[in-house]
Design brief:
Blueprint (H helix, E strand, L loop, with lengths): L12 E4 L5 H10 L7 E4 L5 E2 L5 E2 L7 E7 L7 H21 L4 E3 L3 E4 L2 E13 L2 E11 L19 H5 L5 H22 L2 H10 L6 E6 L2 E10 L5 E5 L4 E4 L3 E4 L3
Parallel strand pairs: 1-2
Antiparallel strand pairs: 2-5, 3-4, 5-9, 6-7, 7-8, 8-9, 10-11, 10-14, 11-12, 12-13
Helix pairs in contact: 2-4, 2-5
The protein binds biotin.
Length: 255
């Protein structure tokens, strides 16, 4: 089983049986001055939050629901890049800890066999035009079973247990995520986004696919071609033009 090999990430740890959201817990700790890498893990969340104001289903005992305090040095433009970095780190950790060949759907959903098994929510607190701190929330459906999900989610989600056929060691998985994240975060601080961008592209299940993007501007259809230098998704529209997508939801077309 993977052991924690980090200097900072996951060293300051709070484990809760039940909480509203680990995002809220970590935010409170961050405001009180908690160091970077502070980690909050819960067995159950009663109001887990997802991207775009959605709820995150977080039943007790079989998932990994956790939030980490980040204190990045960079400008606000680092936020989308950190979002993608988080996806790379978790994807690599999942592969190493469970053998499941997870892939990334832009920006940071992790899928296996076309179904979602992990979601990531990066929330930044901004102050004077810079980042005061960020809370990186990670939800992994580690050992969830079909009966853990509400009916309407069942055909869109999966878990590591379901994909691999064996129970995953959740502590080892958490350690693997912290190990991967600390390594990639140091690489990002030293070398910038380019190496992260390349790793993201290599783990992506979005690129080359026909997609529909839904954002504030409505719905657009095209082919995902790559990731830009800021972390934006480059999409070739039907009229041949190249569009940059900075936020929104992506749906992959089957095939
Ligand atoms: C998404 O895919 O919409 C992001 C889901 C993020 C869920 C995690 S679980 C731990 C942390 N606490 C929350 O309330 N949300 C994140």
């Amino acid at each position: 089983a993977a052991e924690l090999r980090t200097e900072r990430f996951g060293r300051n740890l709070t484990v809760l049986a039940k909480t509203d959201s680990t995002q809220t817990e970590a935010e409170t700790l961050a405001r009180a001055g908690a160091p970077e890498g502070t980690l909050v893990v819960a067995e159950e969340q009663t109001s887990g939050r997802g991207r775009q104001g959605r709820a995150w289903h977080s039943p007790p005992g079989r998932g990994v629901w956790m939030s980490t305090v980040l204190r990045p040095e960079g400008p606000l433009t680092a936020v989308p890049q950190l979002t993608l970095l988080a996806a790379v780190a978790v994807c690599r950790a999942i592969r190493a800890a469970s053998g499941v060949e997870a892939g990334i759907k832009w920006p940071n959903d992790l899928l296996a066999g076309g179904r979602k098994l992990c979601g990531i929510l990066l929330e930044a607190v901004v102050e004077d035009g810079g980042i005061r701190h960020c809370i990186m929330g990670i939800g992994i459906d580690a050992n969830l079973e079909e009966s853990d999900y509400p009916e309407e989610l069942r055909d869109r989600v999966t878990s590591l247990r379901r994909e691999s056929g064996t129970e995953v060691d959740r502590s080892a998985l958490i350690a693997a995520v912290m190990n991967e994240f600390e390594t990639l975060y140091a690489l990002y601080a030293e070398s910038g986004f380019e190496p992260i961008r390349l790793l993201w592209e290599s783990l992506s299940v979005t690129l080359g696919r026909e997609i529909v993007v839904r954002d504030v501007r409505g719905e657009r259809r095209g082919r995902a071609e790559g990731l830009g230098a800021q972390g934006e998704l480059l999409m070739r529209a039907e009229d041949g033009s190249l569009a940059a997508v900075y936020s929104g939801d992506v749906e992959l077309y089957p095939g």
